[in-house]
Design a protein that fits this description.
Helices cover 30% and strands 24% of the residues. The protein is an alpha+beta fold. Helix 3 (87-96) crosses helix 4 (130-138).
Length: 308
């Protein structure tokens, strides 16, 4: 059974944008993805809480090993491997496989000149190149403050769901290659541009199994908890008991013991509505028209990994 924890990193600030734990069992041909909110509270003093008490600050201060240990504490999982992926790697991967077809859930319009980040996507099923895929993965809210609908998951919760669903679609469309040699070539290229304690010798044995993997067998979820305000800052506070239930269910699922559970509902930090996204195996809705996006934006992303 193979576990990995993924961290997406903002190039300029070194704050991690995406933190995810994934697992794959070649024997059962099942996999799972668990998102951990980047604003998860890791501090000791709520009254004196500051930005460095958020999980996304750990990588820049302590490195991937310490970040992985904290994710282990939050999830209760034994994570041995990490992968830190720069955004450019994501862009290059998507372009290498010829783009990814994805159903963008809402219109997305956001500009942050300080990061040279500009997100402009129309909703609907379309082919995304690497630059537009990056825009999709980084989106939280529009310039006017609106975000994903509450039933999908507001702000960060919605972004985490979109990230997981896009990863599933990318895996599905990459594995369509059914070509061990080509997938190994892609992996070799990726490994030249990531930070990891994995080696290609660790990964290559899984490739023959992966080419026959059905992405409908991916269970997707997120850490349970709610948003709370400490010292005038918003944090995500995970629910240890409920998170244990989520992790146990996902672990049993990839072992072939039980079906995946419904995705947890967390309380948003910008609206007081619950995020009640249903999980598991989501397929894109195909509309009558398919758009193709081929323009450009800038930014960066990193990831982590683990084995059991």
């Amino acid at each position: 059974m193979f576990y990995y924890c993924g961290i997406s990193e903002d190039l300029d600030s070194k704050l991690t944008d995406t933190i995810m734990v994934c697992s794959y069992n070649p024997k059962t041909q099942r996999a799972s993805m668990l998102s951990i909110p980047r604003d998860t509270f890791i501090g000791k003093n709520k009254q004196k809480a500051n930005g460095f008490d958020k999980l996304n600050s750990v990588y820049s201060k302590e490195g991937p090993e310490e970040a992985t240990e904290l994710v282990e504490d939050i999830t209760g999982m034994n994570i041995k491997y990490y992968v830190v992926v720069n955004n450019q790697v994501v862009i290059d991967l998507i372009n290498t496989i010829g783009g990814v077809y994805f159903d963008v859930p809402i219109d997305m319009n956001y500009d942050d000149p300080t990061q040279n980040l500009h997100i402009h996507l129309e909703s609907g099923y379309q082919k995304l190149d690497g630059d537009h895929a990056e825009q999709l993965l980084r989106f939280r809210h529009n310039n006017n403050g609106t975000s994903y609908p509450s039933e999908y998951g507001d702000n960060d919760y919605g972004r985490m769901k979109t990230q997981r669903e896009f990863m599933m679609e990318t895996a599905k469309q990459t594995l369509k290659l059914k070509n061990v040699t080509k997938i190994k070539t892609i992996m070799t290229t990726i490994f030249q541009n990531i930070e990891t304690n994995l080696t290609l010798d660790d990964v290559f044995p899984y490739v023959p199994w992966a080419v026959s993997f059905d992405t409908a067998n991916i269970s997707s979820n997120q850490v349970a908890g709610e948003s709370k305000q400490y010292n005038k800052l918003w944090f995500f506070v995970h629910d240890e008991e409920e998170t244990t239930k989520v992790v146990t269910n996902m672990t049993n699922y990839i072992k072939g013991i039980e079906a995946p559970a419904e995705e947890v509902s967390n309380t948003s930090n910008t609206t007081n509505t619950a995020n009640t996204t249903k999980t598991t195996n989501t397929s894109s809705k195909k509309s009558n028209t398919t758009k193709t996006n081929t323009t450009k934006s800038k930014q960066t992303t990193k990831s982590k990994s683990t084995k059991k």
